[in-house]
Write a structure and sequence with these properties.
Oligomer: single chain
CATH superfamily of the largest domain: Spore Coat Polysaccharide Biosynthesis Protein SpsA, Chain A
Number of domains: 2
Shape: globular
Largest sheet: 8 strands, mixed
Helix content: 25-40%
CATH topology of the largest domain: Spore Coat Polysaccharide Biosynthesis Protein SpsA, Chain A
Strand content: 15-25%
CATH class of the largest domain: Alpha Beta
Order of helices and strands: EHEEHEEHEEEEHHEEHHEEH
Number of helices: 8
CATH architecture of the largest domain: Alpha-Beta Complex
Length: 293
């Protein structure tokens, strides 16, 4: 990808819609010694952030949300374009609610020099409990609050596990790819708008273009607690539309656990045998009742 004698020029790309406190914690955890620039794509206006002298410089981009929902796929693509225009060789995508653990970005940059071309680098993600009234402790102390998610590989720090099968486990919460591989994979499909399925679609299309996964031990991101977005009425609409689009493109249903949960709450009609997914009348009230249980 680049000269192994030097660290690749690295950009962190974060898309945001509100959640300024989450973004500020992420900024506090970023180090200019590990990252050269931070691209922040605001989808509902540019966020207001206090300066962090030890963090990389911020390049802010503003996008407008459409009627179908937040342009998550398009925002990530816009962030990648801006990073490449600023000379980035390694693109690290972190969701706004993710705080990188100590050394996580260094693990990504080191791994990028060790893996073969056409690789998606995936770090472990740990889900934090709700913060105390005093907030979360510093990034170096978050490990005692949450372990990596049990459903995804989490090699020991310093280890890389190559994988050419489990693309359904890919999450856009935290991943990295080289500039050349980003061009090879083609970015996120902007037919997806709003919540759900765009990241699995990206991974499967990357696989069709020869990609493999690399599970990078030590590149951990800590996901800050917030209520599940999929329980919001507008996101359920988006999820159903995106799931149908995904099914047309790939021939199977994404997010089956979530769709089953919504089916059991009588929010959607989900008939796998006949490939039917639709919202049920009065789904908003049923969703609210399900959420309050």
């Amino acid at each position: 990808m680049t000269d192994p004698a030097r660290r690749p020029r690295t950009a962190v790309i974060t898309i945001a819609a509100g959640r300024e406190a989450h973004l500020q914690r992420q900024r506090d955890a970023l180090s200019a010694e590990e990252v050269d620039l931070h691209i922040v794509v605001g989808m509902t206006g540019l966020p207001r952030l206090r300066p962090v002298p030890t963090a990389p410089e911020v390049t802010a981009i503003s996008m407008t949300a459409g009627r179908r929902g937040l342009p998550l796929a398009a925002a990530r693509n816009a962030g990648a374009r801006a990073a490449i225009e600023h000379g980035a060789e390694l693109l690290v995508f972190l969701d706004v609610d993710c705080v990188p653990g100590p050394g996580a970005l260094s693990r990504y940059t080191t791994a990028a020099l060790e893996v073969p071309p056409a690789t998606l680098l995936c770090g472990p993600v740990a889900y934090l409990p709700p913060p105390t009234p005093q907030g979360y402790p510093p990034p170096g102390e978050l490990a005692r609050l949450a372990a990596p998610h049990v459903g995804r590989p989490a090699p020991e720090p310093g280890r890389i596990l190559l994988d050419d099968k489990r693309f359904d486990l890919f999450w856009s919460l935290s991943f990295a790819t080289s500039r050349d591989d980003w061009d090879r994979f083609g970015g996120f499909c902007e037919q997806f708008a709003g919540y759900g399925a765009e990241d699995t679609d990206f991974a499967l299309r990357a696989a069709e273009r020869g990609a493999r996964l690399a599970w990078v031990g030590g590149a951990i991101a800590y996901h800050q607690h917030h209520p599940p977005s999929r329980h919001e009425e507008r996101h359920v609409r988006e999820l159903v539309i995106n799931a149908r689009l995904f099914h047309r493109r790939h021939g199977f249903w994404p997010m089956e656990d979530w769709l089953t949960d919504l089916e059991q709450a009588e929010v959607v009609h989900f008939d796998r045998a006949h490939n039917v997914l639709r919202l049920l009348p009065g789904f908003g009230a049923k969703l609210q009742a399900h959420r309050l249980r």
